Amino acid sequence: MLKKSWFIYLCLGLILVLALILRLYKIDIPLADHHSWRQADTAAVARNFVKEGLDFFHPRIDNLATLRPGTLNDERYFFVEPPFYQAIVAGFYRLFGVKESLARLVSIFFSLGAMIFLFLLVSRLVNRWVGLLSAFFMAVLPYSIFYSRVIMPEPMMLFASLGMLWFFWLWLEKQKNGFYFWVMIFIAWALLMKVFPLFLLLPMFYLLWQKYGWRFIKEKKLWLLLLTVLPLLAWRFWIGRFPEGIPTNIWLFNEGGIRFRPAFFRWIFAE
Q: pTM of the prediction?
């Protein structure tokens, strides 16, 4: 049994090495790929944390462009999610100099961590071999490779979201306070990065229902998990004071019609 476990984790390690190698290809390319405008703003916030000081609650970009019609953004504010990612990148910038490849490396390592969580989740849900297969496909799919090395917070969000699922599952099974602590950390972290992790509440509720049924209403610790929404609400309240620094969201609806056009696939496969 120990030999089999050793072989499984060796395979996982090889998959992670393969994933890293694939993502290092042209890691020093300019910020001219898809979503370059958002990547440039994210990179600018990290660089300005080095140039102007780490003002976490007032992230700034490099231009005075109007982010919202009818407002003047003369302070260069850029308020989206809390700049955890940019703060980490800024730390590496201070140590090794301002290089976009360092920012991409931060994204890559969060994506590798997400692969580990995916392996753990699928292994528990099905078996370890299927878990390895899941991690392998996440490692080699071109779409995954492209978006797991962008200078954006999505790789961090994916890491936090899968970590949220994993620790929630562990806590339900083992009922240990240490797991509960990490559940709260990862839920709050994931929700702060993006609102998309809210969709993962569905499988979490399924796991909850499997264990408790209607008895979940009486579980006080489950209700305490609602506190994990407070950091998100606090952040939204804070940035609401600076509407000029909050970008519009029309790009979410395929602004410019670029997705799945020839240029889109050229960015992914050729450049």
A: 0.87
